[in-house]
Specification:
The complex is a heterodimer of chains A (271) and B (263). With 271 residues, chain A is mainly α. In chain A, 77% of the residues lie in helices and 0% in strands. The radius of gyration of chain B is 18 Å and the shape is globular. Classes of the chains: A mainly alpha (271), B alpha/beta (263).
Chain lengths: 271, 263
């Protein structure tokens, strides 16, 4: 692990004790990994039940060398992203609409709040009936799951924009799109980004379920397929892939937060 | 009292004085959910004049200023700027609020540029230099002090070259030294540009040091309308200054006896 080269002038007190502080969170998983490997190699943990870490790594290398792994990752990522774009885009637009126009809120908000209480996964039987088991079913489910966190947080963000700033903007002759661009959207952005992070987590959950139920490719398919052949190592690789992809998505969202909200002192020191 | 255009500037008096608008407030009544704030309120401000409005908290002075800015709509009466109703689009009226209301997500220069075309960047930089913050153009508002933020807010108002500058207790939250500095700056800018200025403040000394005329509002009406004839630049220590401050303060603090006297 490379220790980051922060300038000593900026954070003088974070040297040796800092190293320990950074290493400490990694201690439990490393210990767990060692115990896991040891119990596997002495035979306490049968590989039919859980493969050894070494087996998982070699299976990972094998799958990625053959290119099969990347095909599944690509399919899953593409599904996740297209669902995110469709559902998130719709949530953003509808959130903007209902928060900005009173009649739109009256007309749509009650309906949206009702639909929100239906877990998207509860729709799976219907969705299979409507779309079959091809891509559109997964796109629909992921979009639906992603829609609500972004809708609600966009609505809340716009409603909580500082009234003083809005008033100031109007005295400077801002209205319509310039008012949105200068004041409303940037003011709502912190809240919208919270919605984005929520929905990214939700996105993977729904995709996993959708893929394990019906798919011909993707990480979920790979995992379920491995179950048929008792390939526990491949199953664990699939599960770990979800963890890594989820973490990457979260890092991306955090990066966006740090860039877009860099004006906000609360995000300037956030790690 | 008509404004005296300072002769130390290069521009002619006419040019400078022509920038201000006159404000006529006639029989204005404003009530919020049944509570009357202003009633049959009359006041006039001549073009280029600097008027300070003082009064206790809740006397309606801010409401008056906000209705001149078009941010409140009076239930009765009219407010006209150069005989044009204040309520319809007036691009040349600017307001400075108690809090700077800078956009936290824009750096200093873009804040000054709010509502302007990119072509006016040099002008914005010039005004920023005028308020002494040229070197902070690329900083975030969060990194500025309260006084600096108000300077940026002043610059933002000034780039538009307003005919009327409304100041709603803009220095209320600043420390004493920064305040005096800012008063100086506002006076300088007003003298060199000749716009009409209306300042709402609860600081009588501030009102006297800046304004041509001090209006005291009590119970929704003008209780005192006092011309400040002390020559500029005014020094707070002077006997005339102190006497006037004493008189206005006395009027603010002892409301009842004076009212009884009037009746």
């Amino acid at each position: 692990m490379s220790v980051s080269q922060k300038s000593p002038a900026m954070k003088p007190q974070l040297r040796p004790s800092n190293l320990a502080k950074r290493a400490l969170p990694w201690a439990p998983p490393i210990v767990l990994l060692i115990v896991w490997q040891w119990t596997s190699s002495v035979g306490i943990l049968p590989s039919r039940f859980l493969p050894s870490p070494r087996a998982v790594v070699s299976s990972f290398i094998e799958l990625s060398a053959s290119g099969e792994l990347w095909r599944h990752v690509r399919v899953s990522t593409l599904r996740a992203l297209s669902g995110f774009v469709v559902g998130g885009g719709a949530g953003l637009l509808l959130g903007l609409l209902t928060a900005s126009l009173h009649w739109a809120e009256i007309l749509l908000d009650t309906t949206i709040q009702m639909v929100r209480n239906i877990p998207p996964l509860a729709l799976i039987p219907l969705v299979i009936l409507w779309f079959g088991i091809d891509e559109s079913a997964k796109l629909f489910l992921v979009s639906l799951g992603v829609f609500f966190p972004i809708y609600i947080n966009t609505f809340h963000g716009i409603r909580s924009v500082d009234r003083g700033l809005l008033e100031m903007g109007r005295t400077y002759g801002l209205s319509g799109w310039p008012l949105y661009r200068e004041i409303i959207l940037p003011g709502a952005l912190p809240s919208i980004l919270v919605g984005v992070r929520f929905s990214l987590g939700f996105m993977w959950v729904i995709l996993i379920v959708a893929e394990t139920i019906s798919a011909r490719a993707g990480i979920g398919y790979m995992t379920m397929n491995a179950r048929e052949f008792m390939q526990t190592d491949v199953m664990v690789v699939g599960i770990l892939l979800y963890a890594i992809l989820g973490k990457l998505a979260d890092l991306l969202a955090k990066g966006l937060e740090r860039y877009w909200l860099r004006w906000n002192p609360a995000y300037q020191t956030a790690r | 009292m008509p404004v005296t255009c300072n002769s130390s500037e290069i521009a002619t008096a006419d040019e400078r004085c022509s920038r201000g608008v006159s404000v006529a407030i006639k029989k204005v009544s404003i009530a919020f959910s049944g509570r009357t704030v202003l009633e049959n309120f009359d006041a006039e401000v001549t073009a280029g004049e600097f008027v300070a409005i003082v009064g206790r908290s809740g006397c309606g002075k801010s409401t008056l200023l906000r209705s001149v800015a078009g941010l409140e709509t009076p239930q009765a009466g009219s407010i006209t700027l150069d005989a044009v109703p204040a309520s319809n689009g007036k691009p040349d009226v600017r307001v400075m609020f108690q809090d700077s209301r800078l956009l936290p997500w824009r750096r200093v220069l873009p804040n000054v540029m709010l509502g302007l075309e990119r072509a006016l960047i040099p002008q914005a930089r010039k005004v920023l230099a005028q308020v002494g913050l040229a070197e902070r153009a690329n900083d975030w508002p969060a990194t500025l002090s309260g006084g600096q933020r108000q300077r940026v807010a002043l610059a933002r108002a000034l780039v538009h070259d307003p005919n009327l500058l409304l100041l709603d207790e803009p220095l209320g939250s600043l420390d004493a030294l920064t305040r005096i500095e800012m008063q100086q700056l506002i006076e300088d800018v007003w003298r060199s540009r000749g716009f009409t200025a209306m300042l709402v403040t609860h600081d009588v000394a501030e009102a006297i040091s800046l304004a041509d005329r001090v209006i005291l509002i009590e119970g929704g009406r003008v209780a005192l309308d006092e011309v400040v004839s002390i020559p500029r630049p005014r020094t707070r220590g002077s006997a005339r200054f102190a006497a006037l401050e004493e008189r206005i303060l006395g009027r603010v603090l002892q409301r009842r006896p004076v009212v009884e006297e009037q009746w």
